[in-house]
Amino acid sequence: MKIDIDAARLSEELAELARFTHAEPSPEGTAVTRVVFTEDDLRARAWLRGLAAEEGFAIREDAVGNTFIRWVGIEPDLPAVGTGSHIDAIPHAGMYDGTVGVLGGLEAMRALKRSGQRFRRSIELLLLTSEEPTRFGIGCLGSRLLSGTLDPQRADSMNDTVDAESQGTLSDVRNAAGFTGDLASVRLEPRFYHAWLELHIEQGALLEREGLPIGIVTSIAAPAGYRFTISGFGGHAGALLMPDRRDALCAASELILSIERHALAANAASDTSDTVATVGTCGVFPGAVNSVPSRVVLQLDIRDTDPARRESVMQSVRCDYTEIAGRRRVQIEEELVNADAPAQSAPHIVETLDAVCAELGISPKKMVSRAYHDSLFMARIAPIAMIFIPCRGGVSHRPDEHSSPEDIARGTLVLAHALARLAAE
Ligand code: HGY
Ligand code: MN
Ligand code: MN
Ligand code: MN
């Protein structure tokens, strides 16, 4: 089947979407910040709905703002084939993470429509809400709720960490954004989709290093998130003498290095790089140069292809921080944010992608995704796989994140062919 991807239009639309941002221009390139439910996010969503409406696709939004753009098939009651990703971007990020899957998915649907083909199954593009953990502290909020892996009440009570003064929660923020339904209504039944595919930049350097244009994701590593609150005893930076101190930031520093040490030890023991751990935020209270820190809040992101190994690293860290807390006379509280299982791609969907790549003369690389994606949760309710395209230097979550128009168009073409095969089943 002849399918033509309009690469120029897709590039223009990605550039247009990148302009919905509240990041300052940066020397490294087009910095994008588009936090969920901010003005920029809502304007970007409206713009995308406009593009979909131009094509006559059916559009609906659920109570958390997941947006469903459906090209109805010949047999509309059959489970549809789903594809999609996210458009929210962490602060000072790039313009391709997530957006390639949303705009690439839209272009794949438009290209199939232009080919004159009609399919048994509907094809549905999803814009999934809040894939990034920026605002509510947990990633994949929309796909967790869709797949029933996050309790709606717990979700609605999650604090808005971006506009902290407002003391708002997800419920307040989503209602203010116009999404007022009951979160429990978001959940989709298993097998709602016949198949699910997500096109995404690799966010690593393997494809580029091996000179391969397409990756087929066979599994997605298991992410977990923890919040640590270290409480000491503050005081005057001049008058409080060293022996009398219970410095929360010094204790937090030892905890951070313990986390790094145990992640490195796990990799040495397994002779892999499959364990990764990052303390990405560190809130210091009161945060004055001449005041001994009395409280510190850390957020830990730890991932592994093997959840049991991830847990054993956490056990080692717990032993360490119990010793640190005793020696430094501070309190260290651990709060679990999420601890998710890994996801496996469905063999049939992987075979479909293999067949498409063979048809197009592309040699794909089978690979693990170490970044998490909405597909990690869509895998709970549908057979999934992901298509990766190279990104320059493996850079992502930075303004200099880049994928070439050719790679994006090629990934979109593979997606379009795979959607066509699956929608004809
Ligand atoms: O962090 C992640 O893996 C995703 O890109 N939010
Ligand atoms: Mn991301
Ligand atoms: Mn992403
Ligand atoms: Mn992701």
UniProtKB/TrEMBL annotation:
What residues does the Peptidase M20 dimerisation domain cover? Answer: 224-318
Q: Which Gene3D superfamilies match?
A: 3.30.70.360, Zn peptidases
Taken from the record, one Pfam family name reads Peptidase_M20
Binding positions for Zn(2+) 2 per the UniProt entry: D97, E132, H397
What EC number(s) does this enzyme carry? 3.5.1.87
Gene Ontology MF terms:
hydrolase activity, acting on carbon-nitrogen (but not peptide) bonds, in linear amidines; metal ion binding; N-carbamoyl-L-amino-acid hydrolase activity
Q: Which cofactor does it need?
A: Zn(2+); Mn(2+)
Report residues binding Zn(2+) 1: H86, D97, H200
PANTHER family, A to Z: ALLANTOATE DEIMINASE-RELATED
This one is known as N-carbamoyl-L-amino-acid hydrolase
What is the scientific name of the source organism? Granulicella aggregans
